[in-house]
């Protein structure tokens, strides 16, 4: 069932989003060759605790960490590890913050040191694809309009769009209806309405879009070893347009 949030609920989610943004900005200062994603995960755990929040995905369906840390060919749900990051890596840090019952979800792909030109372009296109999807998140549009905008742009730039993992509704739990695919046809799917709060989180690959699952039952990676990037925002749909609750550019 698709739920619509009150102004008060969205206000609570905005506060969680502000905290999540502050955490991501700290992470951007930490990312460098030599640091481990386990150290980043420990930092996030401490940061949220110090600010009266909890990492909502820790324990969700048995997931053991505060963050997902997906490296290079890992598409999503990568486990933090004690392996130091190397110059030229790209790593996506994804987290869900619960602040007094308000939820916010955002992933960001970071360059570790100096990344090659194709890796930089992958990151640029993925981020731009996110915002092209957000432009479609207005009352009266349909879910397919979001996916179509993302797919046509990303594929036009020579990259592929992951199909198996989608955006979603959020609040009061992590994953709610509706699913938000990052591909599809315009004018198809459920109609977007004021008060819906959703995530848009395109995962864009260098090579094939298909994924395979690691033995841990969580981590998805590309089938051909190509790199994958992801950028994600939580946003509220309003009569005045989408409000990005995890906006890093305020």
Features:
single chain, 250 residues, alpha+beta, Creatine Amidinohydrolase, four-stranded antiparallel β-sheet, globular
What can you see in these coordinates?
There is one protein chain. This protein is of the alpha+beta class and 250 residues long. It has a single domain (7-244), classed as Creatinase/methionine aminopeptidase superfamily (Creatine Amidinohydrolase), CATH 3.90.230. It is built from 4 helices and 15 strands. The chain has helices spanning 7-30, 37-50, 117-135, 143-156, and strands at 54-55, 68-71, 74-76, 90-99, 102-111, 160-161, 167-169, 176-180, 197-200, 203-205, 211-213, 220-222, 228-230, 233-238, 241-244. The strands form 5 sheets. Strands 1, 2, 4 and 5 form a 4-stranded antiparallel beta sheet that branches. The chain has a 3-stranded antiparallel beta sheet with strand order 3-12-11, with no helix packed on it. Strands 6-10-13 form a 3-stranded antiparallel beta sheet, covered by helices on one side. Strand 4 and strand 5 (102-111) form a beta hairpin. Residues 11-239 form the Peptidase M24 domain. A divalent metal cation 2 binds at residues 105, 168, 201, 232. Keywords: Aminopeptidase, Hydrolase, Metal-binding, Protease.
